[in-house]
Amino acid sequence: MDEERKRMMSMTLATVVLLLTGLGDVAGFTVPGGIRTAASTSIDDRNSLSRLEMAPRLNSITSVKKKKKNTNIVDDEDGAPNNLPGTGLPPALMIEGLTCSHDSGTVYQLKDVSYILPRTRKIGLVGRNGCGKSTLMKILAETCCPDNDSEQDEREPIVYTGTVECPRDVSVAFVEQEPLSPSDVTVADALLGIKSNDASSSKNSNSNSVYQIVRNYGQVSHALEFDDDAFAKASAAMDTSGGWDVLTKADEIATRMRLDDLKDQSLSKLSGGERKRVALGAALVQCPDLLLLDEPTNHLDLEAIRLLSDIIADERKMTVLCITHDRSFLNEVCDRIIELDDGTIYGYEGNYADFLEGKEARYANEDAFMSSTKKKLSRELAWMRKQPSGRQSKSKARQEAFYKLEKMAKPRQADTKLTLTNDDRRLGTSIMKMENISLQFGDRVMLDDFSYDFNAGDTIGIVGANGVGKSTFLNMLCGRQQPDSGLITPGETVVFGVYDQMGMKLEEDQRVMDFVKQRVLARDGSSMAEAPSEVNLLLKQFQFPKERWNERIIRLSGGERRRLQLLSVLTQRPNFLILDEPTNDVDLDTLAALEEYLAEFNGVLVIVSHDRYFVDKVTEHLFVFEGDGVVKDYLGSLTDYAECLIDEGKVKK
């Protein structure tokens, strides 16, 4: 009986240690009944104010190497980390005390961030534009896969403090938002990590590796003049290096990512969506233990997104950390969401729907704590005011406690909501008529005898595979592309607002405030006298904090630039909106605000997007581009259309 009691006490003590270090939450550790977690404990029961402030937060791990006694993640004698409690697996990645700021340290993107990434989990990283998601991802990529040949950013290099540790047995692959696309490499070579036709090039991170051996075997076996000796040597190298497994994997990924017919094409001849599929395929061929993805669904069509989701789901041993604003992807692929908010990481078990519920609970918890703290602060403030100056030395400890309480009573950074004012112009009775439109580029037929008469209130989603002519159709609507035959007649009252997926040309040295002022003054009927106040209002509405108003555009994140582009389009008060992939690089708050704006929009909306969640909310019917110039008008949502494709066997469920 005594032994059983000792065993139970040991288990209870271990559980308490896990809860205090925060590792129970990180590793998915299940708390035994009878022990309350931070989320279930009442506000008044908690004594640790620092823990209260971030109740559901992923708590910082203690030093991995220096303080082994105070952490559950320690190094064995051989340097390999022990297993995470409750998982039976060591961590895939450990971040400790990561801090990164800009504006001379006045604005923090990352503030003493610590996190343990458990293996086999599929984790989505979310947060507002400019909060530091891509910064964090780049730091992880630079540390874990330094040979990654990423695009060189013209901005200042990332300066940070803290540590990122990746176990030696963990292989890592990173796919950027806009991967490299060298013109001299074929798709087949790119899938093997070959980045230059010059085998000695420093760009080839896999030089002299199994991937080069596989490539050499392919060249020898397909040579116009077959060489028996060369083939024998290449085959022997494949036997000893494990090349056959790599070749099998490359062929499998090429098939699943719809790249078989493109293997001999150079990357320079591919569309953006095709290049993205190649980059993702190259990463998957490596079978990495940890896959880092920055906006993986950008430029992908509906079928490609489904294929990627299926592959990630099948790779049960692979750990995935991805930045994405595709809510359908987050819902279907991720089993955990981490949010970067005001320099701090918060964790939520489950998918995107669970994240929304968890975030609401966190805010309610913080509000309750703040209310309780303010009451205590009021009592302490009354006590402080009663103290005579001569007795202050006797109550120094209480004064220090007061100042600590005062600091904690400050509210979290305001959860400001992006507000878009719906002020579109009136539309006349005649809006836009397309009659018998045909267009062809060489052998590729974009449109074949297409006709449609647009009406006020039309909300149309343009869908179809990459390269079938969706963006070309948008260009014809706004006059950038003329048809080969047919007639396009816009109404006299039509004012176009065009959001281009390629972004807009921005003067990198121009200040944000000056850019917005320029756009306001470019609008018909604008007043020089009223421009300053309107500029201030727009910057506030689009969530640009005052400290960023005089910032040069070159220092903005990709998402902030997209928000500036959206501001530029909507400032012109259009009544015919053309949006080409508006969800790319845009944070979830901006998407929600844009959805609310479009729900009240009285003009015509034509949108190209592969974000099912977004398209379902803002459109009523679809123009389905089936290829060879065929366009069908589908009355229903994008989700309904996707289900039809599944039923017809055109897309794997």
Automatic annotation (TrEMBL):
Domain ABC transporter residue range list: 93-368, 432-651
GO molecular-function term, one example from the UniProt record: ATP binding
BP-aspect Gene Ontology terms: regulation of translation; translation; transmembrane transport
GO CC annotations, alphabetized: membrane
Top-level division of the source organism's lineage: Eukaryota
A Pfam family reported for this protein in Swiss-Prot or TrEMBL: ABC_tran_Xtn
Keyword flag Iron: no
Record bears the keyword Signal: yes
Keyword tags: ATP-binding, Cytoplasm, Hydrolase, Nucleotide-binding, Protein biosynthesis, Repeat, RNA-binding, rRNA-binding, Signal, Translation regulation, Transport, tRNA-binding
Signal peptide start-end: 1-28
Name the record gives this protein: ABC transporter domain-containing protein
